[in-house]
Specification:
By secondary structure, the protein is α/β, with parallel strands linked by helices. It folds into two domains: about 140 residues, Creatine Amidinohydrolase, Chain A, domain 1; about 260 residues, Alpha-Beta Complex (Creatine Amidinohydrolase). The protein has ten helices and 18 strands. The strands form four sheets. The protein has a six-stranded mixed beta sheet with strand order 4-3-2-1-5-6. Keywords: Aminopeptidase, Hydrolase, Protease, Signal. Pfam families: Peptidase_M24. One of its GO terms (molecular function) is aminopeptidase activity. This is Xaa-Pro aminopeptidase.
Length: about 450
């Protein structure tokens, strides 16, 4: 009997603890939902009108079908599409942009009411004819994937439904999508800052003795520990499994693979966190102390400090109103004019030990790990032509290849990357950037 009563008391206690835990979990889910809804409202109320007017697009039609959502569907409210659905935005030229949803519904869609008009897809053509737009933006693009969501069959269906007169008004919405996705109201900046805190906290815990036991832990085990943390905290990721690899003194070895981390290793990671609508892209670095050491080799620290100086050069040239390409050209010129530095190629440094090679790829970030907006990176040629505006997110990324005397003639790579936002004042971090080499005992 006593054992049975003890078991009963334990069961009651467990149930009570569960009851206490469930509301907190439910509250977190609801808070995230309400924050997501606010972001969507702000994107449509504050960002979309200026993006449509700057790009002289009177109507934006975004098509989705079941099993094939447009990349922008989540930002536009998500919802369930039974067959084909359309998010449609009509701009009269002043005030609020009218929002219409055709064939889109569901409980979640209804609980964040964003749309003025809710109708069947069969009503789309009549709606367009009544608004009589001059230029109708659709999601077909030459370079930006998030603006290229209209499938061939949906394009055919739309052209056939609109008829020859309206179809002649269809234009690419590539720049509109870039502006809509890459400019951010306060609610989305707040979410991005929180994502940055998740990113750096998990990364810095991963590169510590909490996770790493030198001589035992592999780079792959570090990566999977980080993935488990994302799972526990209800977060997504930007690029799949985090990239964990060894910078020196030996060969790099497999990324996030079976390399056993050893004393003397210099480790880096590259990864990003997805929270609500936003994605980060950042790096951290750690040195595994050898017996008797309490700091990295002086040459490694000097290399890290030199990379920090180059990062300050990048920050100096970022300001609203200039194109991303012009900002990149300005910092590249400063690098080229600095004694001992030269513009280099990614992972292909020159042999001359007197020269440190610099590669800058400070790209758009936020709506994805590699974002849709203005980009100070030669691998985004179209986005380099876009003008930096307040509210754009940037990932300040650079690579320095420089000799470390303690490790011989081979140059090692020092990568730095952290995220922030363009403001009227220039550029501001949304989470503290990497200012130190982490130490593992």
């Amino acid at each position: 009997m006593a054992a049975r009563n003890l078991g009963l008391r334990m069961g009651v206690a467990a149930a009570a603890l569960l009851a206490l835990a469930m509301p907190a979990a439910a509250q977190e889910a609801r808070q995230r939902w309400e924050q997501l809804c606010q972001i969507r409202q702000d994107k449509l109320d504050l960002i979309l009108p200026e993006a449509m007017r700057e790009n002289q697009i009177d109507m934006w039609i975004v098509a989705s079908r079941e099993g094939h959502d447009d990349p922008n569907a989540m930002l536009l409210g998500g919802g369930y599409v039974g067959d084909v659905g359309f998010y449609v935005f009509a701009d009269s030229g002043a005030g609020r942009v009218e929002r219409a949803a055709f064939g889109i519904g569901g409980a979640a869609f209804d609980q964040c009411p964003l749309y003025d008009v809710r109708k069947s897809p069969a009503d789309l053509v009549a709606y367009v004819k009544q608004r009589n737009p001059r230029r109708i933006g659709i999601n077909i693009a030459s370079e930006i994937g998030t603006a290229d969501g209209l499938s061939h069959s949906l394009h055919q269906k739309l052209v056939e439904a609109l008829g020859p007169d309206l179809s002649q008004r269809l234009v690419s919405a590539e720049k509109l999508v870039s502006d809509f996705r890459s400019r951010h109201a306060a609610s989305e900046i707040a979410a991005f800052a929180r994502a940055g805190e998740y990113s750096r906290t998990i990364a810095e815990r991963a590169l510590s003795n909490e996770v790493i036991t030198p001589g035992k832990t592999t780079t792959g085990e570090v990566a999977w520990w980080m993935m488990e943390e994302l799972h526990k905290q209800g977060l997504g990721n930007s690029f799949g499994i985090p990239s964990i690899y060894i910078l020196g003194p030996g060969p790099r070895g497999p990324v996030s693979g079976d390399h056993v981390i050893q004393p003397g290793d210099l480790i880096t990671m590259d990864w990003g966190v997805n929270f609500l609508t936003v994605y980060t892209d950042m790096k951290r670095m750690a040195y595994v102390l050898k017996p008797g050491e309490n700091a990295p080799p002086p040459g490694v620290q000097r290399a890290f400090d030199k990379a920090g100086e180059i990062r300050r050069m990048i920050l100096d040239v970022i300001r609203p109103g200039v194109t991303a390409g012009a900002a990149l050209a300005a910092v590249n010129q400063r690098v080229a004019q600095t004694p001992g530095l030269a513009l280099g190629k990614y992972d292909d440094p020159v042999a001359d030990p007197r020269v440190s090679d610099v590669v800058i790829g400070s790209h758009s970030v936020g709506d994805l790990g590699h974002g849709s907006g203005p980009s100070m990176a030669e691998f985004n040629p179209l986005r380099m032509t876009y003008t930096l505006k307040p509210g754009n997110f940037l990932s300040i990324e650079l690579f320095l290849y420089t000799p470390v005397p303690e490790w011989g003639a081979r140059k090692i790579k020092i990568p730095l990357e952290d995220n922030g936002v363009v403001t009227e004042r220039g550029f501001e971090w949304t989470a503290p950037p990497n200012n130190r080499i982490l130490l593992i005992k």
